[in-house]
Amino acid sequence: MDIVIRLMADGAVIPVVLIGAVALLFKVRGSRYEAYARILMAGLTAYLLAKLAGSIFQPELERPFEQLGLSAGASYLNNPGFPSDHMLFCTAITLAVWFETRSKWLTALLGTLTLLVGVGRILALVHTPLDVAGGIVIAAIGALWYLQNTSLRQVQRPRQWSKPAGTAKLAK
User: Fold this and answer.
1) What is the reported pLDDT for 171?
2) Does the N-terminal or the C-terminal CB of the chain have fewer CB atoms within 10 Å?
3) Within 10 A of 45 (CB to CB), how many other CB atoms are there?
C-alpha cells in the first residue's frame, strides 16, 4: 500500500509534466509566443503568491507525519507545508493546458492525475487537505492571466477596407 501512495503522491507528477509539455508544445492555439508568455506569467504569479502566503499563513507548524511521530510517505521539503508545491505545480500545468489548448480530454486526464497527486499527498501524511486546497486555489489565482487570452478573442477585428457598393470594375 505504501508504494501505491508514493506513486500517487510523487509518481503521478511525472505524467502530468510530460503530457502537459507535449500538449503545450504541439496543441497550442493561436500565437505560441503569447501563449507561452501567459503560461510563464501565470506560473510565476502563482509561485510568488504561494511563497508569500506560506510566509504569512501556516495553519500548522509541523506536517501530519511529524505530529503523528511517523515517517513521511512521500517526498517533501523541510517546511511546514502550506501550500502544497506539488499541487500548485500540477494545477498550474492542468490550467495552462486547458486555457491554451481547450482540449477537454487532455484537461480531464491531467485533472484526474492532479487529483490523484493531492489525495496521495494527504494519504502520505505530508500535507493536510488545507495545504492541498491552498495549492489549487493559488494556482487558480495565477491562472487569471489566461483571462487576457479569452478577452482578446472576444474583441472584434477592425473592418477591412472594401470598395463601396456599386463600384464594380469597369469593363474595357
Assistant:
1) 55
2) C
3) 18
Please give the single-letter amino acid code of residue 95: L
**Listed residue (90, 124, 104, 91) closest to 15, CA to CA:** 90
Q: Is 69 left (phi over 0), alpha (psi -120 to 50) or beta?
A: left
User: pLDDT for 99-120, tens place per residue?
Assistant: 999 999 999 999 999 999 999 9
Which among 84, 61, 94, 99 has a CA at the least distance from the CA of 138?
84
Residue ranges in 27-84 assigned as alpha helix (H): 32-56, 64-68
Q: Give this prediction's pTM.
A: 0.83
Q: Which three cell numbers stand for residue 133?
A: 486546497
Q: Nine-digit cell at 141?
A: 489565482
Q: Which three cell numbers stand for residue 44?
A: 510565476
Per DSSP, 77 falls in state: -
C-alpha cell at 70: 511517523
Cα distance from N-terminal residue to C-terminal residue, the chain: 87
